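#lab-general

N.A. 3:47 PM
ok so I finally got the sequence cleaned up, no stray characters, all 522 residues accounted for. can someone with queue access submit it? mine expired

B.Y. 3:52 PM
send it over

N.A. 3:53 PM
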Amino acid sequence: MEEAPESYDLLVVGGGATGLGVALQAALEGRSVLLVEARDFASGTSSRSTKLLHGGVRYLAQGRLRLVREALRERATVLALAPHLAQPLSFVVPAADWLSWAFTGVGLKLYQGLSGRLSLGNTVAVSRQALAQGLPDLAGLVGRAVAGMRYWDGQFEDARLALALAQTAQRAGARVHNHTRVSALSPVQNGWQVRLLDARRGTSRTVQARCVVNAAGVWVDELRRLALPPEAGGAPIKALVTASQGVHLVVTRACLPLREAVLIPRTADGRVLFAVPWLGSTLIGTTDTPRSDAPREPQPMAEELDFLFRETRNAFGLALQPGDVRSVWVGLRPLVGSAGPGDKAQSTSQMSREHLIRREAPGLVTVTGGKWTTYRSMAEEVMHTLQAHGDVPPAPNGPVDTRQHRLVGAPAQSGAQTPHPLSEAPGVHLWGSQADQVLALPGAKRDLGLGLTEAMVRFAARHEWAFTVEDMLARRWRALFLDARQAATMAPAVAALLQEETGLEPRLNDFLELCQRYTLSD
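B.Y. 4:20 PM
back already:
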């Protein structure tokens, strides 16, 4: 007699920021939760952000005050939930003329005002002389500016914050699996029956869930087509999401030395350009290019690279060469709306960054759009939607305020030390209160490159679901995103350790091929 499938109150599909937030919210409410991610946690959009927790300065000009206010509130929440992974960061905005300086100043003062008591610091005018002192190596930028403004926003380590969410959800009772794909999804009495494929061991199983939350990011429409096939002769379901591609360049701090972030408020495509000190390097981004497809590993287009090189030269006086770029990586943003691939880049820059929560059928909800900063409030809204429609009963544990539930690794609130700056080189401090557990493992003093130790690899394999080299060197440790060539040299040693720890094939060759995609030819 065949065993009855495992049964859950909630199945969350997608292990990015939104899905992990939903799993944590539901588990803390006392519900039985299973989360599955087809690849690795945060392997899509959620590890490819510009590393900024922000309210969206440029959304002010679009009149989206509600979006900005909510994001500023949530920014403060995330900073409190994981101070070792999310911290305040100052930004300098140079202005080429007095009119743009005044306009920028008014906007940034409004931005601070919207944050109210949650402000991270005062917005102040910066004279040309002060700009020169703060940016001594950027004479070209300072020379073209009449003055500037300084304001405050947030910076975070997105991939490790996603892992902290996954660990926190697991501790709250959720079952959390990466490298597990949904292959079939169909309605049954009192819920949904779902077929899952486990890529780690090549096995499959069937589970049942009272509710399914589709949080697959830019790929939500794939799951919608699986769950909602057209009736005979009917048209396929209309896509909810348009993908917008953002390209980022990483250079050494010596190449572009910054002590604080720099924002160029307007580029040729109407976006802002950021240069951000991040994990000992400098991050430059980003583009906004519409796509009609959503590849798992998108590649930069020639015109996007030309744009970033040109804007970096125009803004900073830095004539980057391909060999100066240590890593180039691309993220796809799920935007709610429609813009065809032939439309101008401005079309996606004007599209809504607000999220959409849509009940597709009894017990099936899709959540998409939005931004990292607001993952927690989005998760809360998803659970309210399910309960309002009677898809789930009231929470067994009653209302839960996740703003008060600090994430795994967050230092104790009383007497905590000042966190190590995220702008500086990575180290064991990124594990926060788990650092001592990492250091207690074998190989704590064996350096594998870029500050990664054998002990860190062992910890990631045992406690952070890492089994492929990409899991380790792309997200548990950001080697691929910081220096793709160096990541390739580190990979064989990492592969050997992962295989020793897990007994599974770590897919070394796949990672070495991936490193080439993150490298520009001279």
